[in-house]
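Side project, low priority. Logging it here so it doesn't get lost.
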Amino acid sequence: MADAFSSSSQDPIARTIQVSDVSNHLTNIHADIDHTYDIQRTVHLINQGSFSQIALQFPDELLHDSVPVYQALKNTLGPEINIFVLADTSYGSCCVDEVAAEHVNADMVIHYGHTCLSMTTRLPVIYVLPKRALDPAQTLHEFLKLVDSIPQHLILIHDVAYTHQAANILSHLRGAAPHASVYYTPIPTDVVQPGARAAAEKEAGSHSLHRRYSLPENVNLSDCTILYIGEESLALNNILLTHSNCPVYVYDPAERTCRYESGRSNKLLMRRYAAMLKARDADTFGILVGTLGVASYLPLVSHLRSAIKSVNRKSYTLSVGKLNPAKLANFMEIECFVIVACPENSIVESKEFYKPIVTPFELMLALNSEHVWTGDYDLDFERVISQRVSDGICLALLQEQPNDEPSFSLVTGKYHSRRQTQNDQDEPTDANALPSTALQVRLASFLQSRSYQGLEARVGEDDPSILEQGRSGIARDYTTDHLDGQAQ
């Protein structure tokens, strides 16, 4: 029944929604759930590792397959294995949501769909990747239209959805040019232990978005050509940024065409350089925690705090979940944000945000005005932390830079005077006791003038909630309401 103020209870069920064909491509290729979601391989790895608390993480576009996958695993593993379905991740769905998994005491996570392959910190992971259609022969044919022959040093990178065809692609490339060197490291298909790739990151070689490739000592990255297989994506943009000195060819399986993309990297770098210049003029920074599962995010946050403090600027650490302009607009005192997230969520270029959002690499460049950017770009946490030593961007050098002199802004074309911030380690004296008190009163009155002052603190007043059986139905017609009516 419907009236002037509400719609029929059947409307949400009967409503037709639009779903992207690309997001559903995984289930359109194979109607068999067991094959599409690698049920037998998953069961084998679970039994092999003796896991008992399993968390299944689905992105929104694959959530409609969560129940069949759950039932297939449950029927095969048996009742002694507890399985939970995770959805609506706090941050990007490409990262493993270890926080949500720990809410149910999971000892392992199975991640479905697209992933950035970021290294986890606490829980082992099984990646069940999409399987999109790809013709290796067509890929080689389109690539050879743009190049006379296979380059001497070729790096193969692909979207994770084409991992199942990686061996065939390599075979075609190496068969077409036996004397050429094709560099590729397979994406792991076994259980990935937390921190398993930490030791590998310290070895010689390069990697992109944790899709590693090792180069011989006598081969430089600038000598290589990159072939990327995949559609337009954040992963492709990051590859163009981090490999601006390499020719990059992109084969799009959906369009069945190959194109040369390296010219676009210059425009991307120009936009990132402009964001870095805005960060150089800022006095107050907001460190956005965009992940709670990627390894080394906590050391990086501490490093950024120390670096900002060393040049007498102020920082606030914020955890706001998924970013949107409305959330960040609440922090009007912050002049620039720096996001600590996985590589695929680190570049935020939307014009809807009121303040610039930079990466940790860009922030370190901005804090050291004497450093000249050579065009190299890095999104790896470990290398950004160690960069202050290898590139001369260390805290000792930053502290030696004068902060009381005006600096010329390349953004506004004017001189900019720094606002001096009080060092937290300064001991109070009788001379500065009165100014300190006046500052506290001014800050308190400023907070009271804000329309939003933050969530109410109820420390110790509310007991933590436990996992309970939820209700079924829609807001106006839950099934438990019928049960309560029958009981009465």
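Brief comment: The first helix runs from residue 11 to 14.
Revisit when time allows.
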